[in-house]
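Deliverable D4.2, example record:
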Amino acid sequence: MTTDIGTGLPSIGAARARELADRLGALIGADRLSTDPAKIERLSVDWAHMSPILSAQLPAGRADLIATPTSAEQIPEILRVAYQLEVPVTPRGTGLGNYGQAIPLHGGLLLDISACRAVEEIGGEGDGAWVRAEAGVRMRELDTAVAAHGQELRIYPSTKGSTLGGFLAGGSGGTGSITYGSNADGLVTALDVAPCDGSGALIHAEGEETVPYIHAYGITGVIVRATVRLAPRRDWVAIWAAAPDYPTGTEALRALLELDPEPRLASLDEQAVVAALPRDPALDPARASVRAIVQAHVVDAAAALLRGAGAEVLAVRPGLVAADRITALSYNHSTFHLQKRHPEYFHLEVAGTPLWDDPDTVRSVYPGTVLHLELMRERPIGMLMAPYVSPDQVYTGMDALEEIGVSYHSPHNWMLDRRLDDVRAVVGRTDPRGLLNPGKLTPDGKDARWRPAS
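Output generated by the structure prediction step:
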């Protein structure tokens, strides 16, 4: 590895970059490659800037070459060339991750899978339905495709423009998770994965064999094709309510657990967050907002539960567009909108019943804390947002949260921090030279909650 004198960043060197471009051009066509500096700069970043700690500490990365294959079958051949030339490879979907997953920390090849977007087959019936598609298909496109067969996606992320491969390799849950859990909880029935082992072949994994490739940042292999479970398509309605304060909002959110069938998604923002969201007649910045996606035949029951908990129903909007509007205000989108108004805020992904049972103690950990919650069966999850001071304050607060029963996932860490044993069990076989997304796997023995030095 050499260093680009102009940027100070890792580089594979001019000679090796030319050989890589020549060989990949012969393989997929020169028009599918790019060394355009503006494009390389644009595709060498993701949304890690949402974390002030990552912005300050994440090593810069800049690809030497971008390859954009047009079919899943081209990807293992690309990785065979990379293996032979010992070139690092960073896979990328649409770059919507928040943890630096798509930043090429060691330069090399940025593998843009976004043009591999074929929906190959839809099969099965009822709860046994499934769809097989290439990894670059957008979740929105996939949901539209299966709708023609009377089906819908079981789970999709709050950014529906994400790719299927990006959601499986970098995401975890979203709309539908109340019922179906995370994307590692049986959503995936099969994967085709391209290893970087010189073989130029695909690995086909089914059932539990797929787990080491899910939320693995592409370290264990590049997902090129996935088969995921579907559900019978239902008639969804968006319901918006306002509560006079956060405690009443939590009661309203919890009341929706009594709904049968349960909501597809239910979210709560306290007033300070509501004030930062895009304007909508169903959002009152003086009150907490409770929003849910429910089946049409239980709208009246949902409204009654909300009113019984002290909330006022402000809007009932039928249709998928209305439902997707609520999806787009869920999970980390609350952070996005708050940071647009207040860029000094940082965030943590949090979970635990103190978020609704003892919010004042939670807020005492970080002065100025505001909360966004998502309804789950066992306990709420959500986003804790507070004015940022220093990494040390953030990390000390993490320990304090654990002491009061609130778990967290830190978005201030570019290292993979889930299912490390599963990853390490296969990565020696699928990436023996350590070329896949290097710099994102903690050394052996490091704790899964590894923190970058302050």
